[in-house]
Amino acid sequence: TRDATLQTRPILYLWRGKAFYLWSGLAQELARKGVMDSDSGEQSEGEPVTAAGPDVFNSKSLALQAQKKILSKIASKTVANMLIDDTSSEIFDELYKVTKEHTHNKKEAHKIMKDLIKVAIKIGILYRNNQFSQEELVIVEKFRKKLNQTAMTIVSFYEVEYTFDRNVLSKLLHECKDLVHELVQRHLTPRTHGRINHVFNHFADVEFLSTLYSLDGNCRPNLKRICEGINKLLDEKVL
């Protein structure tokens, strides 16, 4: 039946360059039950970030964990499958490594990536279920253009030596942050806005960017892989 088809038809939605597969039935159920405006039942700060322990990081596992937290808030037994695409997963894994290298704090690196994934999932569900007004859709387009500009700048600063300007890149990332805040202002809680700040303030930090782009630093191989992934997403029109 048509209803059965809706429950099992996979949908691909894109947000901030991350691709997630989400079953239609789950998306509709989340929107209907108002899950997206609640942060209740989320993982406490004291819980381990992954089942494998604090020394192991895998962005796909983290996305699955976030999915389970969202699913725990609804009574429906609708089956769902929400995954990060392989390219974005590789980028996330490299971002975790460079964050850990810079902060010397595995727990904080996990927390930053967990917040990034949770925010992306929540906004993606809102977008896919047409929860944004016409005015907010204008912000979506502004954000996409700003994100594309930021992605190309990240790659350019890596590929062309001695062009890196940490202040320029930091400014672009803060502009992305402001657009995300504006977009979800009426949809998500202050706690989620705090997560947005946590993520963007870290990646836009000029000292972090200097560590990432250091020509003789430990993060150079990671930056290479990050830029390779971004280039692939740009070629595929994901970014």
UniProtKB/TrEMBL annotation:
This is TNF alpha induced protein 8 like 3. It holds the Pfam family TNFAIP8. Transmembrane segments: none annotated. One of its GO terms (biological process) is regulation of apoptotic process. GO terms for cellular component: cytosol; nucleoplasm. It comes from Saimiri boliviensis boliviensis (Bolivian squirrel monkey). InterPro entries: TNFAIP8-like, TNFAIP8_sf.
